[in-house]
Each structure stands twice: as C-alpha cells, then as structure tokens.
Design goal:
It comes from Knoellia sinensis KCTC 19936. The protein has 14 helices and five strands. By secondary structure, it is of the alpha/beta class.
Length: 330
C-alpha cells in the first residue's frame, strides 16, 4: 500500500486508484545510471497489494458475507471478523480487497442519478475515537454526511442507512477494534455493544479488524454473542504462518513465487534468488512467521540488491533484517 494512502480520508481512495503506476522498467543502455536504478526502486516500492493465502481467505469471506447480506436480509447482516497477532498483515489484506471492489465500482454507472461521489467502502480506526457516536460519525463523514449538532447516534445512523444505497456503499472497515477497551472502558461489552449498533444500523457488510480478539474475549455478553453468531463462517484468523518444511508447497513458497514474478531488477530474473529454499526459510524465520512483515522486508531487500548491484538472496535479507521489537501493530 502506498505510504501516502490514508484510508480514513475518503479522498485518498480515489487518489490512490487514480495514481499513475510506474511502468515496469527495463535496462536500455550498457551502463546503469542513477535514474535507471531509481526507476527500479520506485517500481518495486509501488507494488501492492500482494496476494497471499490470508488475502485470498479474507476476500472469500467478504464476498460470502456480502452474498448472504444481499440475498438473505431477514437473517440479519452477516459480519466478517479478521483476527490475529499484530503485524500479521490484517489491515493490508482487508484494504486490498476493499480497494479491488472500489475500483470495480468506479467502472460502473453511479448507483443513483443524484450521486456525485460513489463510495463503495468506508474506513475508521477505533483508536482514534471514543465510543459509538464518534465511530459512527467517522463512517458517515466517509460517505459525505455532515453531522447536525442536534443529531444523536440513532438519528445519524438513520442518515447513513438512507444514504448508503445512494452512494453504492457495500462495506465498511472498523480497524484496531481491540483498542476500544483502553480508549473507552474496561468493560469488554462496550466494544460488542458498539459494533452491534453499527451492524444493525448500517446496510452494508461490516469488516471488523483487531488483534487477538478471540484470546481477549472482547465479544462477551449478549451483544458479543450476536456479533460472533453473525460472523459464523466468516471469522478469519491471520495467524503466524508455520515455517516451510521442504516437503510441500506452503504459503511461503507461494509468496516467494509471487514476489519473484512481480519484482523488477536491472539484471533480470537472475538477480532474484528468493525462490531458493534457504532464502525462503530465512524469510519465514526473520519475519516471525508474519507475511505482512515479510512483504515489506522483501521490498527492502530488493532495493538493497538494486542499489548495491548485488542479488536478492540470503545476504540481502540479512542486510535489511527488520527489528521486530520496533515494529508497529497492523
């Protein structure tokens, strides 16, 4: 994901999709100048989202929940929960799926003749808000609703419910949902109650993202039970990937193959040795089994190989190994 993409800013979604993606560079001269090297670096940094096993599982869960919500509305809104440890790539994967659907929606006629700004997806982070009212306002702002000072949460939810079909809203993301406990209350039922209100009040598929939600027992009480039941079959856990065993193709081999295919090098494919078993094992070990870290690490190692006119191999990974203690959750 581009570093300048801020999903909580509605304008950034269109800007990200409209950005000029660098063309795959090639070497035209006998020598490599700085501009040529910069072109390869820029291209590799722009790659993404990278499909992984987790991305595919999340995309499948979102599509299944949306299908149920379209064709079985009397059963209540189905929900997607994306759980797992920090830096497992949860947000990256969810946003990748939401951007795909947003891109497709932008290629279709407006959902309503009066709609000037179709908005397929909205995004908010719990840690930036205090309770249901603030989270609801952020989602409403994403689809163009200006809150009236007289509005209470039920009235504002009603406005979102009325406008959502007109702007083509098909989903919304509530990220860092584990953070509501520290931001608002020690009572774990506060999160479940907040989410239940959103789920029943907004006619679009909710995707709830958080760290270690199941272990923390956040979805407790009656409201929590309803959230859990609504996510039956669409609760995706982005766990740490087990290390490759050399006996079968795992997510690590598939990730290495995808990155090798997409990355560009002045020296061509022979400058990338990411598919070698020892390199894949180092990638799995050094990222602590977390593909989100691994993808960023491979990009840094590729840049190192390009700028040092060397090879993306175990040495390049060692030279760019991430300091996991300094990594921020995602």
């Amino acid at each position: 994901m581009n570093a300048t993409f801020h999903p909580q800013n509605p304008d950034d979604w269109g800007a990200y999709l409209d950005r000029a993606t660098p063309a795959r560079p090639s070497v035209t001269g006998a020598t490599l100048d700085a501009d040529t090297l910069d072109a390869f670096v820029a291209y590799n940094l722009s790659l993404g989202p990278i499909p992984t096993d987790d991305v595919r599982a999340i995309r499948d869960a979102i599509e299944r929940a949306q299908l149920r919500n379209r064709h079985a509305p009397l059963h209540g809104q189905h929900v997607v929960v994306v759980d797992g440890p920090p830096m497992a790539g949860k947000t990256y994967a969810v946003l990748g799926c939401a951007l795909e659907q947003t891109r497709a929606a932008r290629q279709q006629p407006p959902p309503d003749p009066s709609c000037l700004h179709p908005t397929a997806w909205a995004y908010t982070e719990v840690t930036q808000h205090h309770g249901a009212a603030s989270i609801t306002e952020a989602l409403g702002d994403a689809i163009g609703i200006v809150k009236d000072s007289r509005d209470r949460t039920p009235q504002f939810l009603s406005k979102i419910r009325d406008l959502a079909p007109q702007v083509g809203m098909v989903g919304y993301i509530v990220d860092d949902s584990h953070g509501i406990l520290g931001a608002r209350s020690r009572d774990s039922t506060s999160l479940a109650t907040t989410l239940k209100g959103l789920i029943t009040g907004i006619p679009a598929t909710a995707v709830i993202v958080g760290a270690n939600l199941r272990e923390q027992g956040i979805f407790s009480g009656s409201a929590g039970e309803q959230v859990r039941l609504r996510s039956a079959g669409t609760w995706v856990t982005c766990a740490q990937w087990p290390p490759p065993d050399g006996k079968r193709v795992t997510g690590w081999e598939r990730l290495a193959a995808t990155m090798s295919e997409r990355l560009a090098f002045p020296g061509g494919p022979k400058q990338c040795r990411l598919n070698q078993k020892g390199v894949i094992a180092s990638l799995a070990e050094g990222s602590a089994g977390r593909p989100g870290i691994a993808i960023n690490w491979v990009k840094e190692a590729a840049i190192h190989a390009i700028t040092h006119e060397s090879t993306l191999d175990g040495a390049a990974l060692a030279a760019t190994r991430p300091a996991l203690d300094d990594a921020a959750p995602a």
